[in-house]
Design brief:
The chain contains four helices and seven strands, in the order H-H-H-E-E-E-E-E-E-E-H. It is α+β, with helices and mostly antiparallel strands.
Length: 177
């Protein structure tokens, strides 16, 4: 005895007019470009992309070793003491411990300046005509970055102006006015 299955013509038309589910349509869209590509070709593409990623990673790690072994970085951030606003027109001087000038730098619009230095101890002097100078002693280590945050306070960094101001203050105190 053979069982046969019969389909109802109206039900078959209803099934044929239904829209496919989103999962089926996404699979169909992804499967269509892959139909003509062999497995060996897909493996070749994946292998090539993996090789490119490997070479790029190796090149990126070699960049660190391209920097000389005895140098480090100096980052100075110059701000006004009360408001923490950046002071971009300040002067950052890097000096040796014997006061020999190594570099004179000007901060960018954010008040930041960077410079590469050989290993050693340096004096960093930050000055501006409207602010008192800020002097720091830093030690630069190989392949490391030293950060100096200079908070400039109101006053003058000029020794002549300070001498005149101190002289005027002394005269006022002596004459009591």
């Amino acid at each position: 005895m053979v069982n046969t299955i019969r389909f109802h013509p109206i039900a078959d038309e209803a099934l044929a007019t239904q829209t496919p589910s989103p999962a089926k349509s996404i699979w169909a869209a992804c499967k269509a470009p892959l139909l003509g590509v062999s497995l060996s070709r897909v493996q070749g593409i994946v292998g090539t992309l993996a090789g490119i990623a490997s070479i790029a990673g190796a090149a990126f790690s070699v960049v660190e070793f391209a920097r000389p072994a005895n140098t480090g970085g100096l980052v100075a951030i110059v701000q006004a003491a009360g408001s923490h606003r950046s002071v971009s027109d300040a002067t950052v001087e890097v000096l040796t411990t014997e006061n020999a000038l190594v570099a004179t730098l000007t901060p960018d619009a954010t008040g930041r300046v960077t410079h590469e230095l050989t290993e050693g101890t340096y004096v960093v002097r930050v000055s501006h005509p409207r602010y008192a100078a800020d002097v720091r002693r830093v030690h630069v280590m190989p392949r490391q970055t030293v950060e100096v945050r200079a908070s400039l306070r109101a006053g003058s960094s000029s020794p002549i102006e300070r001498a005149v101001k101190n002289g005027v203050s002394a005269v006022r105190k002596a004459l009591r006015f």
